[in-house]
Amino acid sequence: MTHWWQAGDSVWREETEAATPASTRFVLEAVKDVPRIDWQLARARLPDVAQLIGAALPTTCAHATIYPQGFAFCPECGAPLHPARAAPHSAWWGATSGPLPADAAPLPRHVPHGLPQTALPLAAALETRPAEPFVGQADLRMPAPPNAVCVFAAADFGFAAQRLLALAYTRNVLQYWDPPGARWHVFTAEEGSADLHFAASGYAWLPPGVSPVRGEFGIVPTARGLYRLIVNPLAESYRTQAVFEAPLAASPGAVGRRIAVPFVAPDGLRLWTASADGADPEVLEIGPSAPTAGWTTPFSYDGRLHWLHEDGQLLWRPGQPPRWLPWPFPWTPRLQFGGPVRSRDGRLWLIGNDGAGYAFREVGTELPGGAPQVEPIGGARLGFGTLLFRRGHQVKDDPWAVEDVEDQSRGDALVLPLLEAVSVTRSQPSGLVLRFEQFTGRAEAALAGEVLPRTLIEWIGQRNVILDEVARLKHPQACVPFVWHGSLWLHHPSWNEIRGWKLEGLA
Ligand SMILES: [Zn+2]
C-alpha cells in the first residue's frame, strides 16, 4: 500500500508493505520551492536532511529511518519520535558591502561596509577567557573543506536549519558542511549553470536581498558575469540565474539601493549598475586607462563605492559618473597591509610608500584637482577600519598618531589584524589579530611568504586573550575568520583543520 502525506510544506510517500525496508518506508517526494529532490543522496545523510526540513527521527523503534514533519509517534508501533530541530544561530556573510539581514548583525552606518568587520558581540564572549600571557587552545576543530581556498557563509538559506557553505572560487566548487554527519559534501552544478570561477580580482559577493527564493545564496561574481546562486541541499546541487553577463573586472558592491560592478568592454573599463534585484540597469564609462584586473574587494562609505588598486582608486556615487583616480607618482599603496583606516574625523586613509618613506593618503577625495591630505609616518602600520598596529603596538588615536606602548618588548613582534569587532558602546578598537613573535623583518616580507616561526592568534579588547598559537605559518593574510554555530572559527588554506572557539552566550 502507498500512502501520501502532506506535512508542512512537504509531500511524503509511505510504503506500508511488510517487506519495505525502514530506509525507504517514508520517501520525501516534494518540498515547496525546491525544484528537485535526490533521495538517493539525501538518504545517506538523513539526520542532516531531517533538520533542514524539520522532519522527525526515530528514537526507540526501527520501522522507518525518517518520518514526516509533525509526526510525534511511529504510525506502525506508536513509539515516540524526535523532532529534528537545530538551534537558531547568527548568520554570517563575510566581508560584503551588501545589506545584511537582521540575524547577521548589520554594521552601523558610520563605518565602511565591505571590510572584515562584524557587529556580532564577540568581545563579551571571548574576554571571559584567561587573559594574556596565558596561551589558550582551540575548543573545536573541524576538517578543512577539500578545496581549501574558499570563502564561507552561514545562513538558513530558507530552510529550517542553518548551514555552512564554503565556495572555492578559484576551483568552481561549492562545498556544504553536514553537521550531524561531520563531513563536507561537494555540490554538483545543475545543467546550464554558470562556472563560478573568479580570480581576476579580490572576491566578494552580495547576500540575497529581501524575500529571497529558497536556497538563495546571493549574487556572486564569475569570470563571465554576475549570477544569482541558488543551492539545493536536498539534491546536493546548485543552479545559477544570470543577473549581468560580461567579463567582470572586479567583485560587485552595493551602495544605497544600487549594486554595481566594473566590467571589461572592448574600449576599456565600464561600470554596470542596477537596483538590488538587477532591474533598471545602466552602463557608465570609466575610461581607457583604468586597469581590468587586480582590484580589491569593494567597500561602501558615506554613500559611495570604492575599489582600490595598486595603480589608483575607482569611486562611484549613484547618480554621478564613476571616477578613476591614479595615485600620484611615486606613491604606491600597500594594499596587503590591510585596507582603509578611519581617522577620528571620519575620513578614510590608505597606507603607501613613495620610495622615501611610508605615509597615509586620504582616499575618496572627489573634488577635481582637490589635493588629498598626506600624513607621513615612520614605519609600516597594519590594519583597517580602526584596528591598526605599528609592529606589536596598537595605534588607538588617528592612524598616523604615536602608537600606544604598553610593553616595550612588543616592539619585537608584528601584528596583523584579521577581523574588527565594531561596537557602538566601546571606544577602544577590538578584534582578532595574528601576532608574529620575535619577527624583526619588514612587514612586506612577513606577508610575502616568509616562514613565521611562532604566531599567536589573539583577541584584542578590554583584555587581550591569546586563543591559540601556530608554528611555521606562511602567508598569514590568507587566514579566513568566520562565525558559525555560536563559535568563532579560523581557517587557513594550508591547515588540515579549521580551529574554533566557543562564544558563550552568542546564539
Ligand atoms: Zn515504530
What does this entry look like structurally?
It is built from 4 helices and 37 strands. With 507 residues, it is mainly beta. It has a domain at 2-83. Strands 23, 24, 25, 26, 27, 28, 29 and 30 form an 8-stranded mixed sheet that branches. The longest helix is centred in the first third of the chain and has 8 residues, at 46-53. 46% of the residues are buried. Bound molecules: zinc ion (ZN).
Key structural traits:
mainly beta; 8-stranded mixed sheet; 7-stranded mixed sheet; 37 strands; 507 residues; binds zinc ion
What general form does the structure show? Answer: globular
Largest sheet: 8 strands, mixed
Distance between the termini: 45 Å
**Are there runs of 5+ residues with pLDDT below 50, and where?**
none
Mean pLDDT: 95
Q: What small-molecule ligands were found?
A: zinc ion
Number of extended strands: 37
Beta-strand fraction estimate: 35-45%
Radius of gyration: 25 Å
Question: What structural category do the secondary elements indicate?
Answer: mainly beta
- In which range does the helix fraction lie? under 10%
Number of helical runs? 4
Q: Summarize this, please?
A:
It is built from 4 helices and 37 strands. It has about 500 residues and is mainly β. Bound molecules: zinc ion (ZN).
